[in-house]
Records
---
Amino acid sequence: MAEHSPWFYLTTPIYYVNDIPHIGHAYTTVAADVLARTRRLMGEPVFFLTGTDEHGQKVWQSAERHGLAPQLYVDRILPRFRELWERLAVSNDDFVRTTQPRHVQGVREVLSLLREKGDIYEGSYEGWYCLPDERFWTDKDVVEGLCPECRRPVERISETNYFFRMGRYQDWLVSHYEAHPETIRPESRLNEVMGFLRKPLGDLCISRPKSRVPWGIELPFAPDYVTYVWFDALLNYITVPRSTGSSPEEGMARLWPGTHVIGKDILTTHAVYWPILLRALDLPPPRLIFAHGWWTVDGQKMSKSRGNVVDPVALLDTFGTDATRYFLLREGQFGQDVDFSREALVNRINRDLANDLGNLLSRVTAMALRFFPEGGIPRPEGGERREVEEEALQLLPEVRERTVGFEFHRALAVLWEFVAFLNRTVDIRAPWVLARDPEKSAELSEVLYDLLEGIRLVALHLAPFLPETADKILEALDCPGTGTLSYASHGGFGVVAAYTVRPGAALFPRRDASGAILSEETEKSTRKPPKESSSPSKGETAPATPPAGDSASASPPSAASPEVPVLTYEEFQKLRLATGIIREAVPVPKSKKLLKLSVDIGEAMPRTVVAGIAGSYPPESLVGKSVVVVTNLAPATLMGVTSQGMLLAATVSDGVSLLTPDRDAPPGAGIR
Ligand code: MSP
């Protein structure tokens, strides 16, 4: 039936409202959002659904604990989810609540239909019940009185209930997955499902007596019972399409089959119960189920009892929408578990967002404004493809492909390769040098156009991940915002006829280790440009770390004098110093004072450090020398070379004298 529908119907799990949202909920929803936004940019009609799972024993018990009627309780929790999605810029097209009449009615219709078909029967049940998971288990499943899924104690239960003939469809499901293994991702999850299907499937108990669980959808044929919460919840994926069309059939034909993004803990319900239920209703199985991994915190499972649950609202309060979204999807491979740490988050923000992306935009727009104050940097005439275009064609299609393949971290890594390429292009082509030669004005205009066009394409590909940032970038380039974009109309190189840029606000402020924004004061004082007399970097606004020896004054400052700030111990502790060994030293072209050093500080790659010591040390004399490096200074670009640290040196009468450890110290030894 709907196999050929052009619609991309995408769902997240519907979240239990027995508690407030945590980072795991945000993860699933943001990932789905990136997918939905990418598909929209691809020109596909998208229907993106999320919502809340409001029935069941756990929700009912939470309501009891709060002394509230269940409906009132869920109504009170609901805004926490809705507001979170708004703050995370989640672009869902619909929001389903399982207490909505459209859903309740749909579930009752399905129940009646299955009852009429003979797929639901009444039987008696005696066995083990896991309350937190709301699932029944057999003697075989339960080991040492614990739930095989969540390892919490189970209780013995005996009651009359209604059962869904799940076992009937087991062989069909196995052959379905044999024929369509690509419908469960990642591949390892399919093995898990097939393993589960090796054992005979029991029938599924789909009711709960109201005497035990009074909060749920009443069975149309047995008013003393409510529907099992999972049976109720899974059906949201079709009750919504049924309610959005001109008729249930039309709605289903348009949207179904859907793509489900879920966490690995709810794979069995989605990959076994759900397709079987659909089969019983003569509906095709889902197009795809992708089960992602879990977030741990500093290597530990996230749990309330450990008190280490990461609150997405607190992250948003501190870091904002886009930095939070970026971290969620950049940090780990979707499908694998991933670890949360504040340090990793701050590093990502400072390195990837503030330095790589933020500096690129500020450098290029500042140069465009300076060298073309009237604007109008035209598209260069015809000719051969230039390198920025080549690189864009090479890298950017992969960003889309990786995203639709759920490889979000790879997509972002590839996009950042392009950002790094653009930063290198600035360094290599040095527009500020071209600007000094009137004969090079065409080349200057061409380089800046290419860089701006490259940045525009970064914004386009960034739009699904960081929508606010993409809009800020496009605004600085005076281009239409993300709402009007598509890959087809905006994905080519040379789309913009001429650029007139606007001074843009900084995209991401740098943060200290605690996550606090580094104040402008601190930023300015650490990013003073070098006193290079031949400094060509007027149009360059990239922060410039003072090279060693550059900022020291001849007479030692006195801590008592009012202009010398006094540091608190906490402030001093933020400074990271380490020993390093200089591996390479070369002059920075066109500079009398600067040397470009490659300094091994015990990391995977040596750091590039630009130091103003050429007057005191011939480059070859430095190789193999031990030095002291400030390692957590914001990178700065000096004469087109980005410096990732600073060497300590004393000012002496004839220049500078590098500080060096008094005994052998390995590279990377911390200094206290
Ligand atoms: N209500 C059911 C889903 C019904 S869908 C028809 C449910 N809700 S839930 O609120 O408990 O969880 C929903 C999602 O959050 C799941 O996809 C789950 O994997 C995810 N996460 C819960 N904890 C998580 C982490 N620590 N890390 C990542 N995601 C995790 O299950």
---
Amino acid sequence: MTLLVTGGAGFIGSNFVLDWLKSSDEPIVTLDALTYAGNLENLASLQGDARHTFVKGDICERALVDQLLSQHRPRALIHFAAESHVDRSISGPGAFMRTNIEGTYTLLEASRAYWSGLGDVDKAAWRFHHVSTDEVYGSLSEQDPPFAETKTYEPNSPYSASKAASDHLVRAWHHTYGLPVLTTNCSNNYGPYHFPEKLIPLMIVNALAGKALPIYGDGKNVRDWLFVSDHASAIRAVLQGGRVGETYNIGGWNEMSNLEIVHTVCELLDELRPDAAGSYKRLITFVKDRPGHDRRYAIDARKIERELGWRPAETFATGIRKTVQWYLDHPEWVVRVQSGAYRDWVAQQYQA
Ligand code: NAD
Ligand code: DAU
């Protein structure tokens, strides 16, 4: 048995692959185009591990996906690959439409062709697991209940609209063709290997460099935060026991404003790496708001708990401490990401 994982060199995908191979000998084939967000160094500990095969390639390339499916005959495809950063989707939406919509469509069609040719037992066991986001549901006011799986889709950014489109495609391929799909919609992740364009890693690396900590608008936008290995364990639970055609919301029961997040990061750094110039909070700087900035996300994760017994293992206090410590312990990873040197390694590896 094998899993085909798309986007496995990115933040969540690499954490998923590493976690999977810690507890299972079932091999993984990772397909990743290594865009700016893909970092093969995240998977460096798997070099020479026969359980892991890395393939550099684009999910929009049908022939490549067909070839991987027929060569490796996976029992499931776990689809992480995406353009994932909201700010980039605002300045350049094209790549999001291509990867998130056309890429998902390509994977669905290739999967359908492969799955149609399987025998009855393998066909029933096969899964297309689509990894999606809570942003498809839109924005909540302070009083609104958290997002349940029944919440209408109201995406507000080019990123969330492209993810919503991909969710609809996945749903339609199940409804029309019977493809055995699972969809998970998760809240904001944080943890090791998080690219420092996103809030938490950006605040850590900027603070350590003595740079401004940019807070959009009034800093009161609220997100639900989940430690990344809890997302990986939720995906494992859904893959194993999720009902085909269903969606499961995944969250940390941990709503916090951006300002609270940044204060927590600064307080941990004050404790773990005190700066003679004073608290890192002095670097907090309010900047222009993100256009169309969603005010609040919150997840009702009762369905996955009720049906599959999943709950997050980390609290925010434990997860954020591990995260800050990871960045302090891996300065070379940060330097190579910031300088772009992580991409040279790929160029050497692939003579690209
Ligand atoms: P990421 O940007 O860190 O990684 C994305 C990966 O996909 C990269 O390795 C990149 O090289 C690869 N990729 C991009 N375009 C590709 C293409 N055309 N073909 C093949 N590979 C391609 O993203 P992430 O934060 O790890 O998110 C992974 C998934 O989880 C995404 O689908 C995202 O929408 C979803 N998600 C993310 C979060 C979060 O907080 N980061 C929360 C919920 C859901
Ligand atoms: O909710 C899940 C989503 O979480 C995922 O689907 C996305 O892929 C992921 O990028 C994330 O989206 P957000 O837009 O919530 O994450 P980001 O880290 O970009 O921003 C978190 C909050 O912090 C948001 O309210 C914007 C704010 N922010 C962000 C940055 C980068 C700042 O105030 N300053 C910043 O510099």
---
Amino acid sequence: MLQLQNLINGQLVPPVAGHYLPLLEPATGQPFGQVPDSDAADVDAAVRAAEAALPAWRAAPAEERGRKLVRLAELIEQHLESLARAESQDNGKPLSLARSLDIPRAASNFAFFGTAAGHFATEAHVQEGVAVNYTVRHPLGVVACISPWNLPLYLFTWKIAPALAVGCCVVAKPSEVTPYTAFLLSELAQQAGLPPGVLNIVHGTGPGVGQALVEHPGIRAISFTGGTKTGEQIARSAAPRFKKLSLELGGKNPNLIFADCDLATAVQTSLRSSFANQGQICLCGSRILVERRIYEQFKTAFLAQVRALTVGDPLDETTRQGALVSEVHLQKVLSYIELAHQEGGRLLTGGHRVLLPGRCAGGYFLEPTVFENLGPACRVNQEEIFGPVVTLMPFDTEEEAVRWANGTEYGLSATLWTRDVTRAHRVAQQLHAGVVWVNTWLHRDLRTPFGGMKNSGVGREGGLEALRFFTEAQNVCIKL
Ligand code: TXE
């Protein structure tokens, strides 16, 4: 049976108290390993190792740090297949998706921030004849990176890479639901030559080791991705200790589809933005608002594609919908399907658990599901479901579409389909969303800031914003 371990001070070690949690495979419902159920003692050992490694790591030239991160990116690429299989086994996503999205983007994170560190400019201001002011951006020190289960290695590395690039040392905690690839990264980090203590990985539950990490006095900043409720809890714990926070939280993202759009592309991309990763991506477009005069046309074409999505064994190359991450999460999503019926929704396709034969008989599978006839204010259109469930709504005016799009507590992303470039700019800038895609979805340029508005988050990750987050600015003034 696979037994994962913590990475502390460059060594793979068991949890101090010797407690473990079971690792379940979502596609089968069967245990395939154990993960440490670490506690405050493990966190303390990790923070002390990070503190010991910090002086040399932060003093190293950015280019030297960067080379190790780029080496780690190369090792991830060399182990792409084994990492993709581990990701698929742990999370339930199709192997094809782990191979094409999750693992390549984890490598890109290290490659991008490994080179960005060398281009991390600062600023100076000259007061002619009086003084020169320049800004020094010092690494914060030992920081915590905490990530969710939906894109395990992708989001884990998305935080770790910029922190290491600017000279911080990291204590990282992956989700206890999908820790496998984070464990495999521990082994690659050692091969890449990261000095002991620079990167430490502790496994365990949120309320257990996660809370201990957030509260530890040696942690200067917390970069968190996960649910809005959890973000609230972390902010409450961090506030009295004046820790810097970056919170990437939930979403309830709208797709606005205008009649002048490229309909075939809008349908095809909406299929991905609705159901990729079984709808378990915070950036998924779960509310599809369609201009009334093409509503029936869009609906017919969209439903035909949804019904063609194969729900199956994630290891099968033809599978487009794998398993949801856990029985608990599957039941949560099924409860929202029941709620949609109660709120007057008309089920257009899906809506049922899928029982597969063979090795996947005990897996957590669900049909991709589409409802219509639900108003913008109902709970199904207000609350994050985080599964393969979307709603279709016809709108009559641009103003109505923008009002509905903005009408939730979230503001993470939005997708806009129109050929009218003036409308694209006008509507995009009215949307309360940290990321707006026009005629595309999930396109990422790592140089750009990423994050949500309203209850979707605080702070920005990605690009120079991420590097800046892990530093604190000092202004030096020289009198002339
Ligand atoms: O989140 P949880 P999950 C959101 C997505 C969904 C959620 C799903 O919208 O709501 O994440 O991921 C740890 N102190 N996003 O269920 O439960 C926990 O162990 C410290 C948004 O995993 O919040 C796990 O490692 N840590 C995002 C992590 O927090 C605690 C993109 C997340 O757990 C803790 C992806 C505590 N008290 C998913 N409690 C975006 N906006 O980009 C839990 N944890």
---
Amino acid sequence: MNTSYDILIVGAGHAGANAAIALRQQKFEGTIGLMGNEKYPPYERPPLSKEYLAGDKPFERIMLRPESFWSERKIDLLTGCRVSKVDPMDKKVTLSTDDEVRFGKLIWATGGSPRMLDCPGSQARNIHGVRSRADVDKIMAALPTTEKVVVVGGGYIGLEAAAVLTKLGKKVTILETMDRVLSRVAGKTLSRFYEEEHRQQGVSVELEAMVDAFETNEDGMAIAAKLTDGRKFAAEMFIIGIGIIPETGPLVAAGAAAGNGVDVDQHCRTSLEDIYAIGDCAAHSNRFADGAHIRLESVQNANDQAKVVALDIMGEDCEYDSVPWFWSNQFDLKLQTVGLSTGHDHYIVRGDPANRTFSIVYLKDGKVIALDCVNATKDYVQGRKLVEAGLTLDIEQLANTSIPIKEVERA
Ligand code: FAD
């Protein structure tokens, strides 16, 4: 490890790794340190709740680049290093080992840690988050002795984990606090569709189910999740999928403006000079959310912000203004979503959910703001343009699946 880098990137996940790649693509010739606290080279996180958990893809196939890539590009990959302090005046970071590393510019790309429950029994060893390879390796190691799994949280990660574990023959129960799954990210129609799908595949979906304790045995293992209404769900494994807490501590302590994540401008600059923040930990004003200051937790956002930072460092004029997109795989359903549906005042269902191929088009003030497309890639690809342009279209035509979206757009 050098004691100084022109660019120091803290966090070697999607955003950090892609920032290093983008800098070299932009012909940045200075020194780059890519520092992360995990012991593995940068890898894709989405397969953790999909093909990796299912055992269908080994770790080598989810690495973002082959291990030799980093040294070939003269990027110093520094694994197993946790930054505990940032000094923006002296331009240096301190690691948990007390080592210090100086920087010319710092890119903070630390993502988030899984939000866990804080209630009696919640420290038990068989209660898992799903954020890192280490988390999922622990889950996989315990599977041979697990019959029943309780998944707390009906968001994308909880649903994906439930789908994989069901396919692996486990008896899975999802406990969701709200009155529908995916309530934070999708409209009711999509929620009901996924609830039904999971139930048909054998998953038990319990709504308005709030966990307030875990019962534990004398070995300190959780044996049941207890709800506020007194119901109990026994299992050998508990998975918590209730969101993340952005990893911003050292930067906030250094004085960076922050709320729900580190605040950044359209160039991903923080309020501290020569310090950027990107990916899941960065809150930015997003045109597709009516300018609201939001954090996006997606590969799209991590990759696109990484490119913006690299261009900004190279002195190019570039602002972050990408249309948000996301995907989720559950059973044989491929969901692709574009735009942000929050705040929609109307929606149209294109196609019949019973056929397992349909799209939901969300509108606000007559304009298309988002689409959720289930096994409907064509709609997703063509709908993207509608969201980007914020077009007002004929609603009846939009609902008619015999008319491709691009024809509706032309009309
Ligand atoms: P991360 O990829 O989390 O990387 C941050 C890195 O920084 C981590 O390695 C962390 O350990 C490290 N770090 C944190 N603090 C420090 C510190 N102080 N010092 C040093 N290192 C530190 N998105 C999609 O678009 N589609 C999907 O289908 C999808 N599925 C997902 C499934 C799962 C199970 C998970 C967990 C996420 C999924 N996501 C998906 C979200 C996507 O993976 C994230 O949005 C993306 O990883 C964000 O990239 P990031 O670089 O900001 O954070």
